[in-house]
Amino acid sequence: MMARFCKLSQRLMRAMAIFAGLVFALAGTASAAELLDVRFGPGKDQTRIVFDLNGAPRYFVSGDDLGAGRIFVDFESLEGAGSAKTGMGHVAAARFASEGRGVRAVLELKKTAKIKEVFVIEPSSGVTKHRLVIDLVTADKAGLLASLPVRKDDIAAIIEQVTGDAPAQETPAQVAEADIPPTPSVKEKVIVPPVAAKDEKKVVVIDPGHGGRDPGSQGQSGTYERVTTMAAAEKLAELLKARGGYEVVLTRTSDKDDRILPSQRDELARREALARKAGADLFISLHADAISQHAVRGASVYTLSEGSTARSAKVAKSQGDYQVYDVNLKEYDSVVGDILFDKAQDTTMTKSSKFAELLIENLAGKTPMLNRSHRKGDLRVLLAPDVPAVLLEMAFISNAKDEANLNSPVWRSRTMGAVADSIDAYFEAESRQRQAQLAPAAGQ
């Protein structure tokens, strides 16, 4: 019972985070702001970062402790994303990337700092631009994580729907109308007490690409992709189980698995659905690439492309599975439901990108990598809106050296060890940030 309660509480908090930004989204569509410049004002122990914008910004600040630390500023409806820029003071560099339906500014820290204050200066005294200001002061990584803002959105109806175990006090009239589903509301404050779940195992779903009647690509020496992905998946599962703290689920267990469906489309849908049903905290699909130019070799990591979000919602609706984190979005107004789905997918894509970056960092030096290692695509197995997911092309089976690696137990152990290290690092970073954010609330 306690394990179930911990898992439920964890899903509640994930839902709270996933639906962050809903209030802004429901407030109406504002005209897009334009980023004009990013400026830095360094001091002895502090740095001021100023984003100059032509229009009021809609944003949220977050971050992680990778390297000396990173601060993310997610802008909604931002035009003029800008190019990379060398930083000053605590900031080594600023770069920009499209994320979901907005733009993410990534501030790479040169030395660890915490956020002292974030505020917007509106146009005044002849200054026509808006200025988003972030003040940093020197601190350790714990201070950085603790200083990251926490959004608490008004999603009372969603929380009630997910829990179901702790009904609020009802009046006789409410009891009489218990059979009438209430209209979901987003205007009631909800406080969810933090619950520690130290012993809760993370669910990792490993997908050995292809299998059964679908052999995948074939190497010059006759090696089938389905065989190499199965061997790699088994090794990764073995490593994760040995480390403890993980519940490992494989989408197939052999090339003769009866669960493998004759239609590739249906089979890919089955694997994505399996991950969601298992309550996966992370999904990784293993593949081996192939190309007619046999000299090309190296690994790459795919995450879902921004343009695939509409397809994800369409697929979910067509399958009668229009929900995120056990919240049935069909019970909401169509506009609200679509917004919640989009928010969930945007956040999931951000988490997927974070894991992809860790994966690329840990694989470097362990196996050859493509120059542009992080790629994006409209891939069916990555469409789950509430499961962070990546597809790892381990190597090019069409390259003789890569094919030999794919068949090598030594290479397999080293490479899957790097993948396991990335999974550890991903969940450790998630845990540290969550605990740092909860610490002030726990002490109140």
How would you sum up this structure in a few lines?
The protein is an alpha/beta fold. The chain has helices at residues 2-18, 22-26, 141-147, 156-163, 172-176, 225-243, 264-277, 309-318, 334-363, 400-406, 409-442, and strands at residues 33-42, 46-54, 59-64, 70-76, 78-79, 85-86, 91-99, 102-109, 113-121, 130-138, 202-208, 246-250, 282-289, 299-304, 323-324, 327-328, 369-377, 389-396. A hairpin with a 5-residue loop joins strand 3 and strand 4 (70-76).
Detailed description of the structure:
- The protein has eleven helices and 18 strands.
- With about 450 residues, it is α/β, with parallel strands linked by helices.
- The chain has two domains: about 120 residues, Immunoglobulin-like (Sandwich), CATH 2.60.40.3500; about 240 residues, Aminopeptidase.
- The strands form four sheets. A six-stranded mixed beta sheet has the order 12-11-13-18-14-17.
- One of its GO terms (molecular function) is N-acetylmuramoyl-L-alanine amidase activity.
- This is N-acetylmuramoyl-L-alanine amidase.
- It catalyses: Hydrolyzes the link between N-acetylmuramoyl residues and L-amino acid residues in certain cell-wall glycopeptides.
- InterPro entries: MurNAc-LAA_cat (IPR002508), N-acetylmuramoyl_amidase_3 (IPR050695).
